Amino acid sequence: MSGFYWLASYPKSGNTWLRLALNSYCNGGVETDFSRQLAFAPAASSRRRFDELLGVASSDLLPEEIQTLRPRMYQMQALAAREPIFNKVHDAWQLTPAGEPLFPADVTLGCIYVVRDPRDVALSLAGHVGMDLDRAIDFLLNETATLCLQSGWLLEQLPQFLGTWSHHVQNWMALPAPWAPLLVRYEDMLAQPVESLARIVEYCGWGVDQERLELTVAATRFERLQAAEATHGFSERPQRSARFFREGRSGAWRERLTDSQRYRLEDSTVAMRSQFGYS
Amino acid sequence: MGDDYRLCGWRVRSDFPLPDLLPWIGAPLAPVDLHVELGEVEARLADLLYEGPILQMSADGTCRFAIEGVAVYRIASDGRSICVQPHLPKDFSALRTFLLGSVLAIACQRRGVLPLHACCVRLATPAGDRAVAFSAPSGVGKSTLATAFMRRGYSILADDVTLLALDSQQRTWALPTFPRVKLWRDTLERFGYEAGSVERVRQGMDKFSVGLQSAEFSDAAPLELAALYHVERVNDARHAGQEPIMGLGASIRFSHSIYQAPALMQIALDKAAHFTLATRMAAGIQSHAVLRQLSGIEYLDGLISRIVTLHAGGEL
Lengths: 279, 316
Hints:
Chain A is an alpha/beta fold.
């Protein structure tokens, strides 16, 4: 019996970068092999894992039935595990239709929540899925926003309800133990990568080794990831997007959002932005 | 009195209509191989060996499969009868969906027939017609690939779950299942079907069950499985390609491709026998390969031509 560390974030907030860094750190600070799929911290919304553990085809289930059963999948997996399991999560923290937490308390070891300035998230999202900026902003402000909705076609991930960006951040942040997350700002990961990673590594209960931290930070520096993608491609890049590792900096929104786009997004995210210093 | 159908060459008798299956055309006095009955199913099986959220298994090998609001199913330990207690009498399509999916997979396993999460197509080879299967997890496009093969004039044996049996010479055969493909609305419309004219897999779901024409379904007899391709979808042309796998690697990939493999292993009464059967079946297939296919329906035609040519030339 073990449990989960949930690596949670709104999409395009640095979750993949965090997974690459943790993967590198556990392997001694190595560079990532981009010719293979990243196996570290697979998605908590894996359709395959759900179907195989529960013995039912999720593609024949209604979204609310899937949500109701997901906690059972995590409990079954934790029961069989000897080591902590790391999973990537984009779902908003939520209760299932049966009224229990989607990520059960009894198998939660901890959470790391990565937050990023929503104005940069909108830019990154637009580039990632090939939508225009106005639609990306609509998505961040959409109270019913859901990834991989099973309507019209099927994807390899289960449906993931997000809600608005503000709702997502607020819900995860406000959680009590065992979820009470270690909060990591994307901007801090950029500006103070070694210190940020050290906090995360310590939170995960791993030994903090300064030399290994520095190797990891060097191996997962944005330019290195971009170069590796240029050579080998990256298995998690969507087809419509030219590359996965696009800009990786903070504040690009200042040059790219029009005033009206910026005001629309800012007006709806005032409270949460002020908590993180995204003025 | 029920209706009689054929499935995997078996005579199936059902207390309620199963329009997905073809009618029985064998000898009128042939014994019934699988009986689907309506009746009450207990909330908890006696002598439970395994109890999961959906599946239960008792010490004698009887299984219970439940989808709340749809139906509960009890599968006899010899896989020769299935008792169904419907919750939703009005949504018989949902009841049939689980019956012909997970429930049938369990019944098959109990009869030494292994369900593979794969679509299966009939192709010509120098040695005669053979079955070729494409396995992939849900959402990768097995039904889409099966439909694309049909559009090119090839018939299929299965669209989502391919049923395999081993013969006395240790060769692996694909059994004909039933003439249906399940397509989501987007694919359905791309292939020119009218969503209004086909049955939904379940009420409120955007997934449809399309009945096939006789030329689209290979119903005649089991076919020897010549090749198994493990399809992985990639987004980058640099990751695309085909790679043969052999020996232990092929055996492991095969085991992982068994339909809902961990759940089926969990409820295998004799786990060693289940594993041995899987290993033998993998060995009984002539060729295994990993196929990394670029995402997109527009690339399927090229893939089909390549596979058809490969098998027609016997270049395996």
